[in-house]
Design the sequence.
């Protein structure tokens, strides 16, 4: 079958988040009371990270689990906290790393009708314009200001991977500071194309005499633009609120609510699968996707592999998740005429999705 490679969809930048069921919190001692409080705090953070919903821990069905979290803990470790390691917890003596049981927590979310946002997540490109002492500048990833550091912390807590622009000559020509400061969507989207990621967070931040900041943030995803005004808060709160907005919008698209009654089958064809290593890598990726329950190989012919996928959620969600893998590029085939008898045959059924495996 002829594949029109000119019709490929650009591959997005994506990251696999491997600590979705882990959180780190501060404790003042190793006593039982402090430990239980830390478990509750850590469970709240993980639930938010898994669902993208900042209010998920306060929902009626979740409160009991948050208040009695021990049954969900699979491991915890204490770490000595050096003096001044955290702006908010200067007196804390230890940090505690808590790992929760994946199966038990997924059942809890499903029981409470909360969708699960999987570990394959797109990078969000972050453009920051900052004004301090009447001087404006763009902030890069290596900037030591509190804003960038706070965003890095919030990124880990929310499970939202961030990508920063290079701010080189190409960026300065395609996106002047004045246009970023104005939060004009069109030039920001145009300048972001070189980074091959769809979610874009743009921030205009004013430093206040009090040491706090005010900001206007803009989030762009799948052609929609969202704005938020934030006034007179510290940079840690600003970072948390900004990435809560991002997580909420991304999870609303990528997350899946487990429901057997919503299952249906998609047929997937992937070309240029040249060897057993490609085959194993492809299956590993497909099986890891949140929206896919089972994967059933249908046929292998030359370098072409056909799979039947039992999925939850929509085909659009599956397409979006699959495309987060940099090795898979969507293609659109030039279809030939197929007889009615062939269409009726399950073995000759046309695939619903076509992809090309890229080394």
Sequence:
């Amino acid at each position: 079958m002829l594949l029109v490679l000119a019709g490929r969809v650009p591959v997005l930048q994506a990251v696999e988040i491997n600590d979705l069921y882990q959180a780190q919190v501060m404790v003042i001692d190793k006593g039982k009371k402090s430990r239980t409080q830390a478990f509750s705090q850590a469970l709240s953070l993980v639930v938010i990270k898994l669902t993208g919903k900042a209010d998920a821990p306060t929902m009626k069905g979740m409160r009991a689990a948050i208040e009695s979290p021990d049954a969900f803990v699979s491991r915890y470790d204490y770490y000595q906290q050096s003096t001044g390691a955290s702006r908010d917890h200067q007196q804390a003596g230890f940090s505690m790393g808590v790992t929760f049981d994946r199966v038990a927590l997924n059942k809890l979310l499903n029981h409470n009708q909360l969708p699960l946002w999987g570990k394959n997540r797109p990078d969000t490109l972050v453009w920051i314009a900052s004004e301090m002492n009447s001087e404006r500048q763009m902030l890069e990833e290596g900037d030591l200001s509190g804003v960038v550091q706070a965003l890095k912390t919030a990124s880990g807590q929310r499970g939202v991977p961030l990508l920063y622009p290079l701010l080189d000559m190409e960026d300065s020509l395609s996106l002047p500071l004045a246009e970023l400061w104005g939060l004009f969507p069109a030039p920001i989207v145009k300048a972001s194309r070189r980074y091959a990621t769809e979610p874009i967070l743009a921030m205009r931040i004013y430093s206040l005499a009090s040491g706090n900041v005010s900001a206007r943030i803009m989030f762009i995803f799948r052609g929609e633009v969202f704005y938020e005004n934030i006034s007179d808060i510290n940079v840690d709160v600003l970072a948390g609120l900004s990435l809560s907005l991002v997580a909420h919008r991304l999870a609303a698209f990528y997350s899946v609510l487990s429901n057997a009654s919503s299952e249906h089958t998609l047929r997937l064809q992937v070309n240029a699968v040249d060897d057993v290593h490609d085959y194993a890598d492809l299956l590993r990726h497909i099986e890891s996707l949140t929206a896919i329950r089972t994967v059933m190989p249908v046929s292998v012919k030359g370098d072409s592999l056909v799979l039947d996928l039992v999925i939850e959620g929509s085909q659009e969600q599956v397409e979006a998740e699959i495309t987060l893998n940099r090795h898979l590029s969507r293609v659109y085939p030039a279809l030939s005429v197929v007889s009615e008898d062939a269409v009726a045959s399950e073995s000759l059924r046309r695939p619903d999705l076509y992809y090309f495996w890229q080394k």
